[in-house]
Amino acid sequence: RAKYQNAGRGLQIAHKDFRHIWQMYFYSHWQPAVELLLLLIFYSGGQSFLPVNAARTWFFWIVAISWLYMPFLYNPLGFAWSRLVEDLRLWQRWMISQGVTDPQESWWGWWRLQMNGRCKALRQNRLIILVRNMRFLLLALCIFTATAFRRDMYLFNQLAPPIVMTGCLLMGLMLAARGEHTRFTLTYGTWPTAFARVMPLLRFIGWIVTGTLFAAVLFTMEVTFGELLGGLAAVLMVLWTLAHSAVETVGYFEGWIDFTMQPMIVETVRLCHLTLGYAIFMPLFALAALKYFLNASEWQTNYMWHTNVTSTIKTSQIEMANLVRKGTISTLVKGHYERFGRLEETSP
Question: What's the burial of 42, exposed, middle or buried (CB within 10 Å: 0-12/13-18/19+)?
Fold first, then answer.
């Protein structure tokens, strides 16, 4: 007898947190959407006639925004404030987890599983992947060039190459220092004790120098916040391209090196994923907060059914029952009436 079997193409009725949505839609929806948004922003920044530009590119803006937020629109309770806070907490814990190979418990396990299939591509396919990844370098170069030549900044043009290279080197040093201690200790025993002691100091110095360079660029040069944000996006795209090109084109040599295990590459990709995640999720929180404060009924429901409020009410009820059982309440009420009765007798 024939039996119906669900094909999984219906509407979703169970809420999925950010971890599951990230695993399902990052490479298929969000990465192309972010790339398209960067191209649209770069194209809009180079045009002076905004109405004409909007008339030409409005469809692409809708496509990019749809790729980004349609998974949340069809996710039940996807815009509820309490669910968003809990999902963000679980996603952050999933992103920063270390040493766990389970894809459901660790971002590193999921990313390594995704990269294992790409590392086994044929040589000609790896060459195609390398050429395709170069588009991010080209876009980063275009953004940086447009930022530098937006106005006549001779001092900025002179100091830009050393500042960018120093920032990249310091960022690479800090990313490599994050995981070197555990990896070297497990691999080579107690040999790199001095190396493990020096790395936190170098990482601290790297953060100080990077912050100093950032403050110097912000306060001593004529650079706006948008231009500084564009430069940061360009640096992140360069790091993303170098890390993914190393993993997807070289992959791993048998028994010698595995790029999916290198702390510098892993932490670089993790940093890019964290940046993209916060950039994607923050508009959701802004919309949920606006909806939460404008809807008095939802605010009241959330307040009345909050765990802290309900636990406080239950605790007060238990304490009240204990006082009634001990006779303390009746004694207090009797003394209260006696005191007010005396006041009424003495009043004129």
Answer: middle
For 179, other C-beta atoms within 10 Å of its C-beta total 19
Residues 178-225: tens digit of each pLDDT? 544 444 444 434 444 555 566 566 666 666 766 666 666 666 666 666
Residue in this structure with the two tokens 């396990």, named with its chain if needed: 109
User: How many residues can be counted in the chain?
Assistant: 348
* Amino acid found at 3: K
CA distances from 322 to 13, 162, 328 (A): 44, 73, 9
CA 290 – CA 331 distance, rounded (Å):
50
Whole-prediction pTM: 0.66
Q: Where are the domains of the chain?
A: 306-346
Query: In degrees rounded to 5, what are phi and psi of residue 13?
Result: -115, -10
Dihedral pair phi/psi, residue 257, rounded to 5°:
-150, 140
Cα–Cα distance measured from residue 323 to residue 150, given in angstroms and rounded to the nearest whole number: 75
